[in-house]
Each structure stands twice: as C-alpha cells, then as structure tokens.
Write a structure and sequence with these properties.
The protein has four helices and no strands. By secondary structure, the chain is an all-alpha fold.
C-alpha cells in the first residue's frame, strides 16, 4: 500500500498544481491538495520499510490523513457552493471541481487502504 500511497500523493500534488496554474496563479488556496499530497507522500516513503511495525504505523497515519482530507474537502465544497448560492451568485466551478476531485481521490484512497487492512488482518487469522 505504500506505493499506492505514493501514486495518490502524486495525483494530489498534480491536482493542486493544475488548479493553481489553471487559475493564473491568482489563488494560492488552489495549492491545498498539493500539501495533502505532500503529507501522504511523506507517509508513503516512510512506510516503505522492511519493518512491519514501521510500515503499519505510517500507513495508519496516511489513511488518517486521507480520511481527514476527504472530510475537509467535502465540507469546504459544500460550504463554498452554499455560500455562493445564498448570495445569489454562481459558484466558482473550477474551485468546486478541484475540491470534489480531491474528495473523490481521497475517498478512493481510504477505501483501498481499509480493504487492504481488512485483507491483511484476515490473512493473519488463517
């Protein structure tokens, strides 16, 4: 799962950079997915270890980061959309798409991690 973590880290970094550059580098908050990706990447690199205990710790930290990032992205997307609608203006579709893409990526990542954790636990019982 450490390699999968690195793949999702790269995807989040790319999402942040595309969002930032796509808005003409005017909105630094578009880089938020990049920082979540960096955090996942650090955990992914640290989880590549022959030590099972170390791998376990960093993968659990990574999935916690992923879950918090998912929740945060969904909450911020809903708040931004609701705020724009309540003011009678059209929401920023690029920002909304970036937030929802981040949420989707992290939901997929957390799902893969949980399935992996369950499979590992089941294989140990046999």
């Amino acid at each position: 799962m450490a390699k999968v973590t690195l793949v999702f880290a790269i995807l989040l970094v790319a999402l942040g950079l595309v969002g930032y550059l796509g808005t003409g580098s005017a909105h630094p908050t578009a880089l938020i997915p990049t920082w979540w990706g960096v955090a996942l990447g650090i955990c992914g690199f640290l989880a590549i270890s022959p030590s099972e205990r170390r791998r376990k710790i960093f993968m659990h930290i990574a999935v916690t980061i992923g879950a918090l990032g998912f929740i945060g992205a969904v909450v911020v997307a809903i708040q931004g959309y609701g705020s724009a609608r309540s003011q009678g203006i059209e929401p920023d579709h690029i920002a909304l798409a970036a937030k929802l893409t981040m949420a989707a990526l992290l939901l997929i990542y957390v799902n893969l991690c949980v399935r992996s954790f369950i499979e590992t636990r089941r294989s140990r019982k046999v």
